[in-house]
Structure formats: C-alpha cells, structure tokens
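Hi there, hope your week has been kind to you so far. No rush at all, and the record is pasted right below.
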Amino acid sequence: MDSSPSSRKRVEIQKDISFGYSLVARKDYKPGDIIFTETPFAFGEGAEDTECYFSFIQRAIGRTIQKIKKTDLRGTTRDEETKRTKRSFADLTVMRELDYDRATLRDELIANKFYTSMQVHSVSDGGFEVDDIVGIVNRCTLNSFRVKTMTRKDILMLTPQVYKSAEAADLVDAYIEIGEEKTLAVGVFVMASALNHSCLPNAYASFCGEDMEEVNDEFSARGDAGPSSSRSTMRSETAEIFTTSEEQNRITIIACKPIRKGEEITVSYGPIFHSGTIDDRREELKQSHQFICRCPTCLSEAAKLGADMESKINASKQKQKVVGDLIHNYVESGKYETEEVLEALSKFNLDIRKMQVFGKACFDIAAQLVQDEEFMYACEYQTLALHSLILRCEGIDEDDISIAWEILRLLFVKRLVKYRGGAHQQSLDSKMIMKDLDLINRGKRILKNYYGKKYPYQLFLQQCAKDPFEA
C-alpha cells in the first residue's frame, strides 16, 4: 500500500546515504499552512489506559500483520520519479542506530508472541516466518506516531462567577494542564514517518483534522452561557478531537515556520532547543528513539562548545544543580517569607534567570501558590517563569509555542487575582511586568503562526481582551 496521494504534489522523498529518508517541500509554505494529510497504515487505540504506549503499539502491529502480505515486505520496483513521490510499508526504517541488541531482543519477543498467538488461534499467517514478524514489529515501532489531543480544560469558558467559586485543586489542575497533550492511540503513517527530527522544527503533527472547526463552533455556541457548576467545568474536557475510525484519524503535517521550496520539513520527536542542553536532548532521543540527534541546532551548539564540549556540558549541569539547590533551600528552609524569596530570585543575574532550572522552579512555586490560593504571589512567580523562557528563546525562536502556554498561564493567574483577591505590595521590577494587551497580542500571534486561524484558547484570549486585568 503506497502513501497518500495528498502528499505527492506537496513533498518530495529524498534518500540520504547517512541518515535514511527525508521529506522536502515542493512549494513554499507559510506558518499555519497544511503541508499534507495521511490516513494511518495501521492504528492501535484503547480505552483502559490512555498513556499505555506498549498496548497501543501491540494493537497496531497486530492489525499490520492482518493487513499485509509477505510480498509487501519486499517492496516493488519503481522509477526515479515514483521513488520521489511514493512510499510503501517496505520502505519504512527497520534498523536502529543505537542499543540495537536490547531493542532487537524486545522486538523479537513481541514478534514471537504474535507468531505463537497466530498459530494457537489458527489465524492465517500469510506465509510469515518469525523473521518476517520481527521486520514488521521493527517497522511499526520505529515509524509510529503517538496520536495526541490537547487536554483543553474549559478554562476558556470561565466566567467571573466560576473563578470565584472553583476549588483550589481544580484551579491548579487547569493552570498546569494548559497546552498539555495526552496520547490516545498509536498510528503507523507511511509518508509522515520519513519526517526527520529537529530540536528547532519547522512543522508539527496534528490529529485535529476537520473536527477542529466543529469544536471551535461548539465553543462559540457555548461561550456566553457558561458552565453549570465549577467542579464539572474544571474536570470535564472539551469535545475530543479524536475518533476511533482509522480512516478519520488522519495525521496532518502543518508548517509552524516559513518553509521554502526545496527545504527539508522537520518535526520534533520530543525535545526542543530550550528543553535542556544538547546532552539532555540527545539523551532523551537515545532513550526514546535510539539515535543521536544531528539536527542543525545540535550541530551548531556542539560547534560553539568546541572540542571540550563534554567538560563544558558537565560544568553547565553542575551550575544548574547549584542554582536548583539554592532555590530549593530558599523555598524549603522556612527561614524566608514568600516575598523575600521572590525578591531574591528576581535579582538573580540574567545568566541564571535564563536557566531551565530557574524557570522550572518558578513554575513549580507558582503552581503551589495557586493551590494555596496565594494568587498575587503566584502571578509574580509565573511572570518570572515566562521571562526565563523568553530569555532562553531570545535570538533563536522568539515565537516558540511554549511561550504562548506560559502567557496563557499568566493571564489565567491574573484573572484569579482579579476575582479572588490577593493584593500585596509588588515585589518585581516594573520592567518585568507585562500588561494584558501585550500578553494577548503576543499569545495570539504565536498561536496563529503555529495553528493557523483556528487556534486553541481563542475564546479565552478574547475574554481576556474584553476584561483586562489592568481595568
């Protein structure tokens, strides 16, 4: 079975001797443009544990075995033009770069389980030998996508009455889960699997499809009415952007940055440039995908670090640990009031404030303060967390999607201050304070660039614009 025809005029497959396949653009794309969509070759979903990747991939492997023939593993002879526009199951990556022995052993065990099960249940095996099943398992595990949907709480529906009456535990859940995604299934997508990873990608995978418009329409219809109770509002999610039909669960590849004709299209397999050092990102990808990242961002970072890269990374990690321990001691010692800790952190120099450990600590403290209903302090710590992320993204990608999530959190906590109270003397330098209008405009710009005209939390931002904190 070949790849979807929707991609053939939009992308071109290129084969690299060192790095396997890649997809390049056959035309220019701007942020928000759909590059291509594709239905899954095989799909695995389940309701008992929405985070159990292993059970999902087993189902996808089982469906693949039922779907293909032995000859599908050999591929077909194609001319050069067809090789650039079509891709089949046989073309999928079957070898790992790292940890081959351990990964192979795991997959052989899965393969033997399937092979034995097929024999016990007298299922037609299409002439497959165990080695064939191993090849199928490898292709499925190495070329699968986690089918995700955003955990979008109804915070964009909140009215002043809900802010005033919602329980603290529900508020902190809503704060933490802004922008969060959950895995609902695993899909094997033949064309999309040729997309390579980058720590600074120019595209992303979405599973919203055409349902996105319907969900936004539903939001518009319900936006003014408000929820019936605060607890059900905070706990319930908006309509799922997901179905259990393989044909409808398409993957959609969307540009999040301008892409020129002939440029490689990349997505992130997990880590992004501000989520840690080059060593952190490479270690995460080694664990999850068994390869060493050589994307332009990592190569550039490695070149800057030079020959003594390892010693510099170790020094950086040690510095992060010292800063983390220092903040922990400030917070946990009990010697300092919340305001004293806030004032101390706000006076740290820029090199420290841009560290991931600093931003993460401020976010964690803000979440605890929301739980404790100390909303004004939470607002100021969230401001520090946002500034830390902006500093890390400066000069690299100042419209990174993570900035939008931190902006939304700050706007959310500001609403809590407005409707639940918590005034105190402001501790942060006035230069750090961002007004609602500036936050809303930047958040809108980032979300539009990333998602296009129909973007998440649109009504929440509209609500913030109508009812700004400063008013």
In short: The chain has two domains: 5-276, 307-466.
